[in-house]
């Protein structure tokens, strides 16, 4: 199976998970990226069972709306039953690196509201230790140089994502060379740097369920 076929397989498994676990009329959070896009496509036939969807990015909003889904404003919603999203890396404890698509801040907000975070990945994303994938950090533009210096002190090499502006009007620094042995601690340390909006470590609020596509099957891993 190619990586793309694994992404499609796990997207269909996520659709089945939602059909089995989300009550009719409840609200679903939807992530960002190529795996999430396959999930949106798979979800469309059951759109009338949903009370509405919350998008984690402008791109996802447009795709959901284009498929005829009712896209709600998070400020009008108190409760999201399930949030389905991909990841760039996920470890055994279901802590993740996210933000390869630059949507980390909105993804973190939607994840914080959701009861259950379902991560959908192909096997290449499953790692023993997070950090091979550069850690995205969303930064207020005027703080770029200050934040980069602070991130270097934490042992990483930050690189500006050239030509990229987030949905929130900010910049992304991708931090290379981090070996992340204590993801929860590092997540809090980076959030504590003045000028950081959020970082792509999802450890304090990791996934609750991992649907992991291998070349032969989709495995279900629970926290
Ligand atoms: O965090 C993300 C976007 O900000 C994505 O979930 C992550 O980059 C995985 O993307 P893909 O499914 O395309 O591999």
UniProtKB/TrEMBL annotation:
<comment type="subunit">
    <text>Homodimer.</text>
</comment>
<comment type="function">
    <text>Catalyzes the reversible conversion of ribose-5-phosphate to ribulose 5-phosphate.</text>
</comment>
<protein>
    <recommendedName>
        <fullName>Ribose-5-phosphate isomerase A</fullName>
        <ecNumber>5.3.1.6</ecNumber>
    </recommendedName>
</protein>
<dbReference type="GO" id="GO:0005829">
    <property type="term" value="C:cytosol"/>
</dbReference>
<keyword id="KW-0413">Isomerase</keyword>
<dbReference type="InterPro" id="IPR004788">
    <property type="entry name" value="Ribose5P_isomerase_type_A"/>
</dbReference>
<feature type="active site" description="Proton acceptor">
    <location>
        <position position="107"/>
    </location>
</feature>
<feature type="binding site">
    <location>
        <position position="125"/>
    </location>
    <ligand>
        <name>substrate</name>
    </ligand>
</feature>
<dbReference type="GO" id="GO:0004751">
    <property type="term" value="F:ribose-5-phosphate isomerase activity"/>
</dbReference>
<feature type="binding site">
    <location>
        <begin position="85"/>
        <end position="88"/>
    </location>
    <ligand>
        <name>substrate</name>
    </ligand>
</feature>
<comment type="similarity">
    <text>Belongs to the ribose 5-phosphate isomerase family.</text>
</comment>
<dbReference type="Pfam" id="PF06026">
    <property type="entry name" value="Rib_5-P_isom_A"/>
</dbReference>
<feature type="binding site">
    <location>
        <begin position="98"/>
        <end position="101"/>
    </location>
    <ligand>
        <name>substrate</name>
    </ligand>
</feature>
<dbReference type="InterPro" id="IPR020672">
    <property type="entry name" value="Ribose5P_isomerase_typA_subgr"/>
</dbReference>
<dbReference type="InterPro" id="IPR037171">
    <property type="entry name" value="NagB/RpiA_transferase-like"/>
</dbReference>
<dbReference type="GO" id="GO:0009052">
    <property type="term" value="P:pentose-phosphate shunt, non-oxidative branch"/>
</dbReference>
<comment type="pathway">
    <text>Carbohydrate degradation; pentose phosphate pathway; D-ribose 5-phosphate from D-ribulose 5-phosphate (non-oxidative stage): step 1/1.</text>
</comment>
<dbReference type="GO" id="GO:0006014">
    <property type="term" value="P:D-ribose metabolic process"/>
</dbReference>
<feature type="binding site">
    <location>
        <begin position="32"/>
        <end position="35"/>
    </location>
    <ligand>
        <name>substrate</name>
    </ligand>
</feature>
């Amino acid at each position: 199976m190619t990586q793309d076929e694994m992404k499609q397989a796990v997207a269909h498994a996520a659709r089945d998970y939602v059909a089995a676990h989300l009550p009719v009329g409840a609200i679903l959070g939807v992530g960002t990226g190529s795996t999430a896009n396959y999930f949106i496509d798979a979800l469309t036939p059951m759109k009338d069972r949903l009370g509405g969807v919350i998008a984690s990015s402008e791109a996802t909003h447009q795709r959901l709306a284009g498929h005829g889904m009712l896209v709600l404003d998070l400020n009008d919603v108190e409760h999201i039953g399930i949030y389905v999203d991909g990841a760039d890396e996920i470890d055994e404890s279901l802590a993740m690196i996210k933000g390869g698509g630059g949507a980390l801040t909105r993804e973190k907000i939607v994840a914080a509201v959701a009861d259950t975070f379902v991560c959908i990945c192909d096997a290449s994303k499953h790692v023993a230790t997070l950090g091979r994938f550069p850690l995205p950090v969303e930064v207020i533009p005027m703080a770029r140089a200050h934040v980069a210096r602070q991130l270097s002190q934490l042992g990483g090499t930050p690189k500006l994502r050239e030509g990229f502006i987030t949905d929130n009007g900010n910049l992304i620094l991708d931090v290379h060379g981090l070996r992340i042995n204590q993801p929860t601690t590092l997540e809090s340390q980076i959030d504590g740097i003045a000028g950081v909006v959020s970082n792509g470590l999802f450890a304090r609020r990791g996934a609750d369920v991992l649907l992991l596509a291998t070349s032969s099957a989709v495995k279900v891993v629970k926290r």
